[in-house]
């Protein structure tokens, strides 16, 4: 089937490459010529495990092409809208500028009976408005139909999530649209992936609600972590116990400096904003609180860092390990790691940052110094902060690192460090939610004899 994908960010580029992998002919359209140029040559414009191979295979097969010209999408039977829907400048709602631009560009070029499928995260009700606009703009009698097929892929797992999704949601208004989408996904469906057919608005809400649930879970666990700290309890054991309850499950229970990225924070705000518009104030209040708890984690980390610098951060040397919003990604959008590093720099600390993939985002910043290795970031540091859950940090040798820092004080903002070797190597290790870990490790060692 000939398919177009409008918008080639993480979502669109991965989806386009997955469609080509399944044997479809795919044209990816984007307004950014640089991105299109890279993709067309099989070069991944972002770090995403497995994506470069999938892209290169698609391009080499001749089934996957890219262009800035929306006219190239004209002959496609199915068009996926994968453009970004960022937070509005100066507001909590979603900015749909790119979505409407894609609809306007596509509409006059659509062939008879084309199916336009939204994948972007949008406020509920948008799909119906897209249908209205396409009816206005497309040629009379062309009977263009809109469907919504939300995407649940995570950065860092985008390829795996695309090729082996948990579920496929088909928001459709007709059997014909469902049949067309089933044909698009026939190879995945053959693997037995659950499919849920529903209406357009429920499909739109499915995505926003999934992100709101995940964000809420993280904020709940971060509140529990703060209570653990106050009660000198152990958040890791607590989440282990909670996760063993089959009704709760173990995922999204990692405490730390909070969630970030280009999706969870802005989708949560957009959901609150849309719920308020719909008159559902309780939803806006609940998700507002989830957002507030999340922002509070960043401040809590900055406060802890300041305390460990005797409340005199000015001129003090701080190593920030991690800039990406999560591991296995080079994305720094709304990154808690970068927010903490930036706040400490604003307080006058001399902050050196190392991230395995995201350091390039620091080029040109005068407040933060990008480093090429953990050791250079930590050289002479009076405080070390682990801010992104990279595996590289989890396996650091505390003895070796202890030789390069000025003071062996570390804040584990992601609970990735094993306290025992760090404490044995003479480090004071602080982790959000672990109470006073040194005391607990000492007590455990005493009990062990
Ligand atoms: C999120 C959703 O998980 C995807 O299902 C969704 O498709 C995507 O947004 C989107 O809307 O496009 P993503 O932004 O890639 O995916 O990131 P997550 O893996 O969900 O992590 C989000 C943030 O939460 C990260 O900062 C991560 O470090 C943090 N997190 C995650 C925690 O603090 N604790 C956890 O237990 C899990």
* Mean of all residue-level pLDDT scores: 95
What portion of residues is helical? 40-55%
Tally of individual helices: 18
The span between the termini is 69 Å
The order of strands across the largest sheet is 3-2-1-4-5-6
Identify the bound ligands. Answer: uridine-5'-diphosphate-glucuronic acid
Radius of gyration: 24 Å
What does this structure look like?
By secondary structure, the protein is an alpha/beta fold. It contains 18 helices and 14 strands. The protein has helices at 10-21, 33-40, 51-61, 97-106, 126-137, 158-163, 175-184, 186-190, 200-231, 235-243, 264-277, 281-308, 336-346, 374-378, 391-394, 398-404, 419-424, 437-447, and strands spanning 2-6, 25-29, 64-67, 78-81, 115-118, 145-148, 168-171, 195-198, 317-321, 350-354, 368-370, 383-386, 409-412, 428-431. A 6-stranded parallel β-sheet has the order 3-2-1-4-5-6, sandwiched between helices. The protein has a 6-stranded parallel β-sheet with strand order 11-10-9-12-13-14. It has a two-stranded parallel sheet with strand order 7-8. α13 links the parallel β9 and β10 (350-354). α12 (281-308) packs across α13 (336-346). The termini are far apart. The relative contact order is 0.09. The model has no long low-confidence stretch (mean pLDDT 95). The protein binds uridine-5'-diphosphate-glucuronic acid.
């Amino acid at each position: 089937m000939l398919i177009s994908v409008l918008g080639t960010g993480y979502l669109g580029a991965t989806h386009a490459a997955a469609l080509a992998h399944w044997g479809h002919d795919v044209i990816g359209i984007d307004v950014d010529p640089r991105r299109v140029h890279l993709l067309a040559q099989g070069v991944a414009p972002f770090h995403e495990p497995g994506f470069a191979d999938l892209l290169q295979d698609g391009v080499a097969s001749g089934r996957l092409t890219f262009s800035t010209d929306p006219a190239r999408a004209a002959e496609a039977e199915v068009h996926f809208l994968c453009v970004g829907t960022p937070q509005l400048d100066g507001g909590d709602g979603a900015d749909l500028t790119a979505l409407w631009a894609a609809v306007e560009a596509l509409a006059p070029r659509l062939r008879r009976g084309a199916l336009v499928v939204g994948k972007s995260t949008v406020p509920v009700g948008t799909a119906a408005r897209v249908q209205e606009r396409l009816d206005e703009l497309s040629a009379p009698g062309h009977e263009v139909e809109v469907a919504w097929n939300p995407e649940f892929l995570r950065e860092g797992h985008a390829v795996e999530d695309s090729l082996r999704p948990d579920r496929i949601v088909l928001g459709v208004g007709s059997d014909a649209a469902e049949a067309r989408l089933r044909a698009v996904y026939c190879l995945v469906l053959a693997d037995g992936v659950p499919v849920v057919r529903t209406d357009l608005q429920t499909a739109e809400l499915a995505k926003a609600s999934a992100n709101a649930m995940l964000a809420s879970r993280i904020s709940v666990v971060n509140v529990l972590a703060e209570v653990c700290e106050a009660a000198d309890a152990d958040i890791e054991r607590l989440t282990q116990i909670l996760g063993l309850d089959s009704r709760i499950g173990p995922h999204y229970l990692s405490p730390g400096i909070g969630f970030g990225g280009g999706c969870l924070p802005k989708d949560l705000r957009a959901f609150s904003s849309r719920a308020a518009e719909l008159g559902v104030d309780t939803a806006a209040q609940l998700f507002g609180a989830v957002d507030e708890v999340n922002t509070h984690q960043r401040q809590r980390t900055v406060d802890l860092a300041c305390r460990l610098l005797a409340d005199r951060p000015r001129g003090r040397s701080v190593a920030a390990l991690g800039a990406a919003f999560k591991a296995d990604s080079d994305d720094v959008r709304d990154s808690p790691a970068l927010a903490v590093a930036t706040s400490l720099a604003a307080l006058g600390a001399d902050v050196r940052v190392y991230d395995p993939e995201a350091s390039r985002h620091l080029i040109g910043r005068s407040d933060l110094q990008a480093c090429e290795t953990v050791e250079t970031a930590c050289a002479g540091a009076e405080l070390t902060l682990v801010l992104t859950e990279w595996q590289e940090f989890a396996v650091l040798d505390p003895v070796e690192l202890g030789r390069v820092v000025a003071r062996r004080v570390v804040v584990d903002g992601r609970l990735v460090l094993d306290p025992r070797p760090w404490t044995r190597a003479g480090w004071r290790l602080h982790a959000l939610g672990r109470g006073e870990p040194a005391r607990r490790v000492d007590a455990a060692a005493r009990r062990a004899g």
